[in-house]
Amino acid sequence: MTTQIKTSKPKILVARAIFPEALAKLEESFEVRSNQEDQIFTPAELKKELSSVVGALVTGSERIDAEALSEAPNLKIVANIAVGYNNFDIPSISAAGVMATNTPDVLTDTTADFGFALLMATARRITESEHWLRAGKWDKWSIVSNPLGMDVHHTTIGIIGMGRIGQGIAKRALGFEMKVIYHNRSRLSEADEKACKATYVSKEDLLRNADHVVLVLPYTAENHHTIGAKEIDLMKPTATLINIARGGIVDDLALAEALKAGKIFAAGLDVFEGEPKVNPELLKLSNIVLAPHIASSTEKTRRAMGDLAIQNLRAALDNKRPPSLINAEVFKE
Ligand code: 8YV
Predict the structure, then answer these.
(1) d(Cα 41, Cα 53) in Å, to the nearest integer?
(2) pTM of the predicted model over 0.90
(3) For the chain, which domains are there?
């Protein structure tokens, strides 16, 4: 007679669809509650899902706060598949004794590439020109009436938020022989400033002097509407504004009004207040390039983000230190 030993695997939640190979690998070690249908859980559903698991892979769409964690006594880790973690209420997560992790570094270059692409598309009116062409308006080549853009090379780029991605954009800007000015919570080290040939300035000076303003700062309550009507008024009428940070950093309605009034030349937005909804006033404009939050979206990088999140989750469940632990001060070595 053979005795069957029942080994129970730890239960985890994968709150959104991930690449099938990554899911299959997880299923070898864990009992996985997956969500390959990719329907976003309501807060009540998320709370219920978290109540029975020891670890969870989540994205920016899942808000993890005291309420979400209130019935999850066994949860050890919430691993965000994103570098930004404004969906995490860190004090509440720490108070619940849960580790919080994110996915830095693996998306830096891909996101910096996109920031630069959006800047180029916005300054050179690429999507607007394509719509114009598709609408059959291109009946002749013309010096004066084909869409005229703004130069990028040899202009001044102003970067607000000079973390890893901001510095990546600055380095790309050097290839275009741009002058780099930046504003950040804290000034970079001399070595980092030198590597980016970047000059630290106040936010106001940056807005007054930059030809292209790029936003790459994390979203916090203090950063809400970092750019509103007052700030746009400081910008040059020829300037562009690029937001690859988070919705809420820019007052979208104020931006729409400023673009309509021609207060700045154009804007490029990858993130929106209340996304995936987009303020209808923005949709009416032609001097804007709109993207559906795709700055990190290459297959290679999205896979790497998932892999890093899984590495974080596995480490925490093996009682090891996750490589990108956010609330590290709570889990001293
Ligand atoms: C994510 C992002 O794709 O990493 C981030 O902070 O904004 C994107 O790379 C998105 O947040 C999904 O979680």
Answers:
(1) 15
(2) yes
(3) 3-106+299-330 (3.40.50.720), 108-290 (3.40.50.720)
